[in-house]
Design a protein that fits this description.
- It is a single chain.
- The protein has 10 helices and 13 strands.
- By secondary structure, the protein is an alpha+beta fold.
- It has 2 domains: 140 residues, PurM-like, N-terminal domain (60s Ribosomal Protein L30, Chain: A, 2-Layer Sandwich); 174 residues, PurM-like C-terminal domain (Phosphoribosyl-aminoimidazole Synthetase, Chain A, domain 2), CATH 3.90.650.10.
- The strands form 2 sheets. Strands 8-10-7-11-9-12-13 form a 7-stranded mixed beta sheet. A 6-stranded mixed beta sheet has the order 1-2-3-6-4-5.
- Helix 2 runs parallel beside helix 3, helix 2 packs parallel to helix 6 and helix 4 crosses helix 5.
- The longest helix is centred in the N-terminal third of the chain and has 19 residues.
- The two termini are 26 Å apart.
- The protein binds magnesium ion.
């Protein structure tokens, strides 16, 4: 009998989809960062993210507040990726019965600390006992407040692949956490990511932005979701990657390949998007006027090949796949794009 590890996360989602009929009020179903549903004359966004002890966090390495913050950040980042505004969250928590009450309180403090930054609130949830690892799910409900929202599909030939912030920081932060060296700036990026909600809203208001998602599984993997959804390929220029000096220094000191960490590493929760090439300079300039967040063009879309190439070579490593022992299959293996309604 086939096991989930035999097919990987993305093909598993593809198979699940066969059991999920749609209705006309579903504007965008499984397969994007959020589901988009029409409620009267409003477009609402819904997404969830599950965090499991031993898979996403270790209690000996992470404070409860940070665990709560991060799982909420992952959910809110999916709303940011569509260019929406987060409004409400529901949480589902399973804990062992000997879990300290204080742990649960601090976990929710972390969730609230993040949501309050964006005026979002927890409106309910569920708690249950488990004999296994602790798990916490945050479901977010958001709203399309502007004229439009952004999907993963829509990139055009010649569009600039563009990213907010500095990427690769989270992967290096995780390396530091697991291996012991002190790298406070990088570990902070790993445990306390800041979803780019305001930036996402701004970008979605600009018609020159054609497609967008957030980087959760890794730059190459997430870029491949954009290319697959848009039926194009993309060339990433590794020399243009926005790498933090502290990341370069950390990688040099510890014998790591900084570019590789950035291409494969996930959980940066930065926005990755396709931007019209004709207006690129204007958009970059206007973004700089509005935000202190860096914004960098790192590649270009093409119809010359499918998938993601780095310096002309097909990049062998996709990124993070929950059911793959190491990394996902190459980008042209054609699994369905993930995330979305089922996280
Ligand atoms: Mg996402």
């Amino acid at each position: 009998m086939k096991k989930v590890q035999d097919i990987g996360e993305f093909r598993l989602i593809d198979r699940i989809r066969r059991f999920l009929p749609s209705t006309p009020t579903v504007v965008e179903g499984v397969g994007d960062d959020c589901a988009v549903i029409r409620v009267f004359d409003h477009l609402m966004l819904v997404s969830c993210d599950l965090s499991v002890e031993g898979v996403h966090f270790r209690r000996d390495l992470t404070k409860p507040e940070d665990i709560g913050w991060k799982v909420a950040a992952a959910s809110l980042s999916d709303v940011a990726a569509m260019g929406g505004t987060p409004l409400f969250c529901l949480t589902s928590l399973s804990v062992r019965d000997d879990t300290p009450v204080l742990f649960v309180e601090r976990l929710y403090q972390g969730i609230s600390n993040l949501l309050s930054r964006f005026g979002a609130v927890v409106i309910g949830g569920d708690t249950t006992r488990t004999d296994g690892p602790i798990s916490i799910d945050v479901t977010v409900i958001g709203e399309v407040t502007g004229q439009r929202f952004l999907r993963r599909k829509g990139a055009r030939i010649g569009d600039k692949l563009t990213v907010t912030g500095q990427i690769g920081r989270s992967a290096c932060g995780l390396h530091a956490l697991l291996n012991g060296p002190s790298a406070p700036g990088l570990t902070e990026s790993h445990i306390g990511p800041k979803p780019r909600v305001l930036e996402g809203l701004w970008l979605s208001a600009h018609p020159q932005i054609h497609a967008m998602l957030d980087i959760s599984d890794g730059l190459c993997q997430d870029a491949s979701h954009l290319t697959r959804a848009s039926g194009l390929g993309v060339e990433i220029d590794p020399d243009k990657l926005p790498l933090a000096p502290e990341q370069e220094e950390y990688c040099a000191t510890h014998g790591l390949d900084s570019v590789k960490m950035t291409l494969q590493g996930g959980e940066d929760y930065e926005l990755l998007f396709a931007m019209d090439s004709e207006n690129a300079e204007e958009i970059l300039h206007a973004f700089h006027q509005e935000f202190r967040t860096p914004i960098t063009v790192i590649g270009e879309f093409t119809d010359a090949w499918p998938g993601v190439r780095v310096r002309g070579q097909k990049h062998p490593m996709g990124g993070f796949d929950h059911f793959s022992p190491t990394f996902a299959a190459p980008q042209d293996a054609a699994p369905a794009e993930s995330d979305g309604a089922e996280g």
